[in-house]
Design brief:
This protein is α+β, with helices and mostly antiparallel strands and about 210 residues long. The protein has one domain. About 30% of the residues lie in helices and about 10% in strands. The protein is built from two helices and seven strands; from the N terminus they run H-H-E-E-E-E-E-E-E. The strands form three sheets. It has a three-stranded antiparallel sheet. It is elongated and about 80 Å long. About 30% of the residues are buried.
Amino acid sequence: MRTRPRAAAGFTLVEMLVVIAIIGVLAGLILVGVRAARRSAARSACEARIQALKSALQTYANDFGDYPPTSLAGLSRSPGKNEGIESLIHCLTTRQGESSPYFEPEKDELGNTDGDAQARNVADSRLGGAECLELLDPWGNPFVYYHHRDLKPVAGPAWARLQVYVKGDGQSAKTQPRPDDRTKSYPGETSYQLWSFGPNGENEDGAGDDVRSW
C-alpha cells in the first residue's frame, strides 16, 4: 500500500521570531553605519571648507598685505552680530584686488542667521545686495573668524573682541579667541583664528568637537 509523501513543514513560530530578530539587528547595524558615514562626511566637508578659506585668505593677504579685519567697522560698515565671518566673506568676495574674487561660495553655503543688513547695497562685494551674509558650516551654523589683532586680551581681564554669533536655530552664542591649553600661546597669533561649532552645534572656542583652522 502506497503512502502519500508528507507535506513540507513550514516555519515554526520560534523560527520566525529568530529570523525577525536577526533582520532587526542587521537593520540597526546598517542604520548606525549610515549615521556614522553621514557624520564623517559632514566633518570632512567642514574641514574642506576651512582649507578653501585658508587658501583664499593667504591669497588675499598677499594682495592686500594683511588679512581681513574682524570688525565690519574697519570696512566702514555697521558692526553687529556674526561680525567676524561677515567681514571675512565681504573681503573675500570683494571686487577689488588683483586676484579677486578670492572665494566663491555656493549659494547653499551662505546664510544670514542674524537677519541683518547694511543701510545700502554692498557695491564692492560680488555678492551684491545689502544683506550681511555669513558662510555656514555643514550643520547650518556660521563660521567664527578673528583677525590676529583681536586674539590676545587687552590690559586686565577684558577681551579685545567678544563676539556674539546667532546660530542656525536662532540661539545666540558668545565667542572669544582661545589660547592653546598646553603652551598658553594663541594659535594664529600672526594670522587669524577660524572655526566651526562642529557637529554638536555648541561653541567651544575651537576646542571640543569644534572644527578649527589650526
